[in-house]
Amino acid sequence: MTATEGVPYSTPDQAAQFRAVILPHLDAAYNLARFLVRDPVAAEDIVQDAFLRAFRAFPGFQGQSPKAWLFAIVRNCFFDWVKDNRNSGAVTDESTDQTEETPESIVRRNEEVHMVRTMIENLPEPFRETIILRELEEMSYKEIAVLTQVPIGTVMSRLARAREMLSKLLLPRKMGASV
Questions:
Q1: Helix ranges (DSSP H) in the chain
Q2: Domains of the chain (ranges plus CATH)?
Q3: Distance between CA atoms of 139 and 93, rounded to whole angstroms?
């Protein structure tokens, strides 16, 4: 056992390595937290707490997938947040990028983004989490299985069910709009 084991402080080398290895996943961590908590302000708090925990735990980081490691911490912070804030479940909408040319196309795109976001947010938690990790964060089935601590078969099943739920919600709207 070395003198630095178990100490939550890092060396300048470790801090630089943390910035190089973990910090690039900040946006992805926020995206995961945002979809899990359904509140942009709470997501910022969760990510801040997760990065603090990750920084403190970084000396013990074994070099596995840094994104999956960070997501596990974000997920744990989310569960802690849920325990502390049982009565908050407000869904808020972020402003979206306004790069379309016409006001009509901006309104239409914003409505579609809001509709899809709402549908994803309304999926039951294990399905919502799995589809976010796979489709938005592009994690492998194996990484998701490790992160969520379930077998790969369960990940595949949850993903298939989440896709099925979303297609049932989205396809009738698309078909009705095009008829």
A1: 12-21, 26-37, 40-57, 66-84, 103-121, 125-131, 141-148, 152-178
A2: 11-98 (1.10.1740.10), 110-174 (1.10.10.10)
A3: 25
* pLDDT per position as a tens digit, 91-100: 334 433 334 4
- For position 4, what pLDDT does the model report? 42
pLDDT in tens, 136-163: 888 889 999 999 999 999 999 999 999 8
Phi, psi of 125, deg, nearest 5: -50, -50
pLDDT digits (tens, 9 = 90+) for 60-80: 888 788 988 999 899 999 999
Global pTM value:
0.57
With beta carbons less than 8 A apart as the criterion, state whether 111 and 32 touch. Answer: no
User: Rounded to an integer, what distance in angstroms lies between the CA atom of residue 38 and that of residue 129?
Assistant: 12
- The encoded tokens of residue 24 equal 């690039």
**Under 8 Å between Cβ of 94 and 40:** yes
The answer to whether the Cα torsion of 147, 150, 152, 153 is positive or negative is negative
